[in-house]
Amino acid sequence: MRRWRCVDRVCSTGLRLFCLAYVCLFAVAGVVLLRHRSTSFSPRTYFSAESSEWPTLDSFLSKSDRWSALQDGSKLDCSSLQDMLEVQSVAYGWTKAVYRAVLRGQAVAIKTVNMHGRDMMQCLGRGPHEAAQWQRPTSAECYRRAANKIIKEVAILIQLAPHHSFIQVLGACVPDASGPVIVMTELGEPLDTVQLLRLPWIKRLKLAKSIAEMLVRLAHSPLGSLAMNDLRRQQFVLVDDSLKLSDVDDVGMAEPHCSRDNECHIRSDNNTVIDGVSCVNRTCSGYNERLNIWRAGQHFIKQFLPIDVPPFLESRTRALMDAYERRSPSAGWDAKRILVATDNLLQLYHTQHNPPQTTHKYGSRKIPEEV
User: Smallest Cα–Cα separation from 73: which of 101, 109, 105?
Assistant: First the structure.
């Protein structure tokens, strides 16, 4: 999801009527969105841009150890939507519309397809490159494509859980027939640039550690090495002062194929080669991990970590920044090495600001050096 537009107004009709409008829309159109039944699920091969199948979350919903619950221990599904209170629209993106609601006393985020978002409009052929009428998919097909991205995101988040660097999924509603796809997650606060720069340096360093932990998880996930194709500050939220990645619908689940090493170059936005990996067994081995590191550095870490660095940590911080920017001598650091270096910075900071108290022993008593 990209280019969030935040609004403050309260949805006067509430999300329940919003859902009802969807149902009516599909009913009038005579559309039935059938859910594809499958006994097994492979996100790596099942989801594709061309897929018109309606995937199922059944195999993931059954994994209760990865499916989060509300504070009262209850879990959310389609029947939970009727209990929503205080519904407010929060943001609109290219794929999703996000709402805030209160369910059973807890504030949660409600995500569904943005019917006027870029994905829907481009699919319907509405925009600067409008397609001929006979080339346009139906509204139901376009909705299914956008909804599949949301379902894919849920499946990936469940596979990455439990992990404190990723938003927790609290429930989902993928109806068998007409109706909107709804996802319920933890509610987070957007990460504002000004707010971020005003934080003390040690708090920013802790956020950098959360980023490093996320990079390690993406590189060694149950789905293999994942590539964040849209890794930017806007994809993160703060939940109880903890940084979490909330938007993974554009994740890549396979490393590039290759026949030689020069096909495994990592390029910047202006097409400059900034890194590269080896072609091993016709795959660019380690490509996704290196790409995530570089993007995290460009779009996140370098925006806040090098500012107001304590003098005694400047050289180590510079080495860490070199690792994110893929510059020698730290260019070869992987995500685990970056996490170790970040953790070392935290320990050195605390040692400098909280030195151990020196004591002298007198018999069986310990008397502080300064009284």
Answer: 105
3-state secondary structure of 184: strand
Question: Can you give the pTM of this predicted structure?
Answer: 0.75
The DSSP symbol for 300 reads I
14 phi and psi angles, rounded to 5 deg: 85, 160
CB 299 within 8 A of CB 231: yes
Which of 74, 243, 272 shows the shortest CA–CA distance to 165?
Answer: 243
**Band of residue 330 on the pLDDT scale cut at 50, 70, 90:** confident
The Cβ of residue 305 has, within 10 Å, a number of other Cβ atoms equal to 22
- Residue 232 identity: R
Q: What is the pLDDT of residues 33-71, one digit of tens each?
A: 323 322 233 333 333 333 334 444 444 444 445 556 565
- Rounded distance between C-alpha atoms, residue 273 and residue 321, angstroms: 18
Task: Find out whether 96 and 1 touch, Cβ atoms under 8 Å.
Answer: yes
User: What is the number of residues in the chain?
Assistant: 371
Q: Where are the alpha helices (DSSP H) in 199-281?
A: 201-219
